[in-house]
C-alpha cells in the first residue's frame, strides 16, 4: 500500500484523537466513577447499571433523530466541516465539565455524559462521511481500518496516564482521592481530543458536495424523502443497513456496558482498567489484519466472521464468573471489535454516491445509533428483571443472529456497485 496522503493521515488521526474519549469516558473510568457516585447515593449495582444503559440509549436517540436531516444539509458545500466542528466541540467541552461536577450530583453527571456522547456521536457522522473525500474506493478498507487501529493505539496513551494517576491515588502514593484522580483523567481526555482534532480541521476538506440553495433546510427535507426512496429501491443497500442495524447494536452495547458488567460480577476497578488497556493494544493489530483480510476475501465475509465471534462471546459471557473469564472475554472482543466497525464503514462508503455521502451516512448513523438504543435497554432491563447482568449480555445473541442472517442475504459487491451507478443518475 502506498504512503498515505496528508488528507488521509489527517482523517485517520481523528480516530487517534477521539478514541481517548471512547476508552476513558464511555468504557473505563467514567462508568466506574458514576457507579461509585450512584452507590454512595444508595442506588443498587443492578439499578445503576440500568441507569447507565438508559443514558446511553437516550443519547443515541437524540443523535438518531438529528442524523438524517443534518446529513442532508451537510451535503451542501461548506456545511460538513461546520457540523463536524460543532459536535466535536460539544463533546470536548462537556468532557471537561465532567471534571468539575460534584460526585454527589450523580444525575447531573449522567446528564453531562449524555451531552458528551451526543457530541462524540454527532461528530462521527460527518467524520465517517469524510472518508469518501480523503481517499479512493480501492483504499477505503485499509484507510478505514488504519483509522480504527491508530485509535486503539492512540487511546492507550491518555488511558495509561489516567490509570497511573488513579492507581497511585488508590495506593496513597500521591495526595489525591480516587475521585479527583478520575476528574484529572477527564481533563486529560478532553485536551487530547481537542489537540489531535486540529489536523482534521486543517487538512481535510469536503471534495464532493452539492451547491447551496436559498433554503437549505427545506431542500434538505426534500432530499431526505429522496434518500428514503433510494434506500428502499436498492436491495443491497437496504439489506445491509438492516443487517447493520442489528449486529452493530450488539457491538456498541458490549463496548459501552463492559466496565459496568465487570464491576457487577465483582472485578475490582484496577483489574478492569488493566484489562481494558490490554484489550486496546490487542485490538490495533487485529483491526489492521481485518482490513487486509477484507481486501483479500471481501468485507462481507469478514464482517460475518466477526458476527460469529460475537455470538460466541455473548454465550461465553453468560457463564462468566472469575477475573480470568473476564480477561478471556475482553481479549476476544479486542480481536473483532475494530475490524467489524472498520469494514462496515468502508463497505458502506463503497455503496453510496459520493456527492450525497453525508445524506446516506446520516442513515448509516441513524441505523447504527438508533439500534444502539435497544441493546443497552435490553441489557439493563434484563439485569433488573433477573438481578443478573450475565443474562443481560447473553440476551444480545439475538441481535447478532438477526444481523448475520440479514447480512447473508446482501447481494455481492458487484450488484451493489450497479445500484450505486443507478443512484448517481437519479440523484
Give a summary of the structure in a few sentences.
The chain crosses the membrane at residues 12-34, 54-76, 83-101, 107-127, 148-168, 174-196, 236-258, 270-290, 302-320, 326-348, 360-379, 391-410. This protein is mainly α and 427 residues long.
Provide a descriptive summary of the structure in words.
By secondary structure, this protein is an all-alpha fold. The protein has a single domain, classed as Growth Hormone, Chain: A (Up-down Bundle), CATH 1.20.1250. It is built from 17 helices and no strands.
User: What gyration radius follows from the Cα positions, in whole Å?
Assistant: 21 Å
How much helix, percentage-wise, in residues?
over 70%
Strand content: under 5%
CATH topology: Growth Hormone, Chain: A
**How would the global form be characterised?**
globular
Q: What is the average per-residue confidence, as pLDDT, rounded to a whole number?
A: 82
